[in-house]
Amino acid sequence: MSHRPCDLDALPLRAVTVRPILPAERARWEALMCEHHYLGRCVPVGNVLRYVAEVQGRWVALLSWQSAALKCTARERWIGWSRVLQYQRLHLIANNSRFLVLPEARCPHLASRVLATCLKRLAQDWQAAFGHPVLLAETFVDPARFRGTCYAAANWQCVGHTRGFAKSGGTYVEHGRPKTVWLYPLHRKTRAWLCDPVPHPKWSHAMSPVILSNAQMDDLCLYLRTRIPDHRRAAGRRHPLTTLLTIAAAAVLAGARSFEAIAQWGQRLSQAQLKRVRAYCHPKTRRFEAPSEPTLRRMLTHVDAEATDRAVGEWLAARAGTGPIVIDGKTLKGARRDDGSQVHLLSAMLAHEGITLAQCEVSAKTNEIPELRKLVEPLTLTHRVVMADALHTQKETARYLVEDKGADYVFTVKENQPTLYDAIHTLEPRHFPPVRDAYGQGPRAGGNPAPAGHDGPQRLSALPPCRPGDEAGAHRHAAEDEQNHH
Fold this sequence. Notes:
Helix content is 31%, strand content 21%. It has helices at residues 26-36, 73-79, 83-89, 110-130, 149-153, 190-195, 214-225, 241-253, 259-267, 271-276, 293-302, 305-319, 368-376, 395-404, 418-425, 471-474, and strands at 16-20, 48-55, 58-67, 93-101, 136-141, 157-161, 165-168, 171-174, 180-185, 280-281, 288-289, 325-336, 342-350, 356-362, 385-388, 408-413, 478-480. Helix 8 (241-253) packs across helix 11 (293-302). It has three domains: 8-195, 3-Layer(aba) Sandwich (Aminopeptidase), CATH 3.40.630; 214-309, no CATH class; 320-427 and 463-480, Nucleotidyltransferase, domain 5 (2-Layer Sandwich).
């Protein structure tokens, strides 16, 4: 490669092209990176793509992209997603780990041009190489060395700073050099898609599993012990029922979809993990043993499925925040009853985390409307927002949620309810205050506190609260949504 400066001032920037390197070019790429970049060659982390920028066949810049950083508070704050979705969709973010403009190729605006050109093809190249797209690009800039001018010129957003830690040997070590965090959304709906509990249909990559920590498994085991009684005979019983249920639940959350997969997941647990879940300890070897596949199969086919589902759902709900709850029904594909009718399930799910709190089967002789009460009866809904489609926009359902469960609701209203539909159209902006306090008043001017003995602002109201039986009051949280059902 020639080391004389390229005469780039005489060339238009549109002559710059960016492409992935060829396998035969990797040694040259890494040699240049080691020679000219202050961090040296890029140590691969997860998925990696390496690019070269050229002008008439001459190399002018090098870039590398890899899997995103596991944790970054500034990034998580900008996206606004939950921790569950963060780990499930981290593969949809690419990290610009190296960017080098070669010394012999200095010219104004070259760096921002290379970045913009590379970003135009990054999602397509990532899809071709790894089977799924990327929605967001990230990078970290050392403010002691650079100001990030080229990223700002390429329309990246500086969203904050890191805390000055680096991962080393499975733990985080403080290095004392916080870096600025720069993000570039590759689609105008990046944040909405990353936060949506329902994955986009074009994402062909399977969602990453949710791995419970040792402390969470211990907590789940203790919780199930107080909720699920063990009715098995004492003779021949090795593993406590809560141990089997904890391993099964954690394995399913981690992606296991069969009895054999659950057993294999349990076999991979360490001795410390097995001890936490109270696994059987062999009296001779003094080692904890994971349950076998036949043991797990017998237990799961005889345990009270409804009680177990309810207990696990309650445990997840208590640890997954207080966001809105979405209620929806789906007909299971390929599942039929003995009479040939399809199985239909009604589920309550946390909208932000994508976690199912409860579900029940809808009988072939009824529909979702009467089953909603049975579904949410065991759930604590006080001051929670419940969302449902137009099928559940019913007076009795609204009354039950507000008066019996202490919840608020958002229902879809369609033209098949013309009276309510027209009534919503006649409402004015003043009917939609942001907050109503315990006295039915709007926010207090100047932020004055509520009178003694009251908690002040409480619940959001889509419509002014009225007495039960009043048309507007019964549907005070109904909201028209012609574009989206949820």
